[in-house]
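We close this part of the discussion by returning to an individual protein. The sequence in question and its structure tokens are set out directly beneath this paragraph:
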Amino acid sequence: MADHGAQPIRYPKRPAGSEREVGRIRGSTPRPATASTRSTPWWPRRGGILDAMGRLDGRVALVTGASRGAGRGIAAELGAEGAIVYVTGRSRRGAPAVPEFPHSVEDTADEVTAAGGSGVPVVCDHTDDDDVKALFERIASDHGHLDVLVANAGTTIDTVPTDLDGVSVEAWDRVFAVNVRGLWLSVRACVPLLRESPVAAVVTTCSVAGIRPGPQPLPYAASKGAVANLTKTLAGALGPTIRVNGVAPGWMVGEWMEHQLGDNYDRLIERRAKMTPLK
């Protein structure tokens, strides 16, 4: 096993032939598990992802698209709770994938470690099946399980939604490859590792643009609508042993919105803040 500082939690193996029950869903009566039914873990849960102290000590997490923006912040927060956090992206130190965003996966991993966790940087293109498989093979070799997947990797274009001819087929396909196919490949590859954890959880990054219409680039809005639907479908397919939830952010302070809004960033963020009831 690779030494990443924090010691991962060791989960017991399920005894062969052990009796177990399928978990309750909306008050249904538990029934004996069979070869065709998914069971809840036989070991006791610890209050979901967070234990009573609100810590993630020893939990193993993966945050995709973590070299900048929301993914970078999420990874740092997981680190502050004591997790071992694999952070992925396409930007390595000294070679950013997008010149406007110079941060790298190594930078994020350093922030995770500085916050109290253990950051593990991995350069990975989540639209590439071989890259994704190699990533999860590494996590399997290091720890044998995964507790949390934050499927955050995403992209967009700058073309306004009224400019239909301005959206090339290549741009459309690229946005869907990152936002939808990348999510699917990551979830598919990590399910065996998640099933080794008693507190397995997947969190997807959707967007308000995927829930209600807005002035967003067409491929971005359409792809986030697909993410919202896929999240709900996966929740039904993988639950109750693997919880799947999505987060649909609106405007957020940070480099992503700064890049999107340009010179209007400060003015528009201040105006939006005045419209936000929760501070």
Remarks:
- Residues 169-194 form the longest helix (26 residues).
- The longest strand covers residues 84-89.
- Residues 14-54 have pLDDT under 50 and may be disordered.
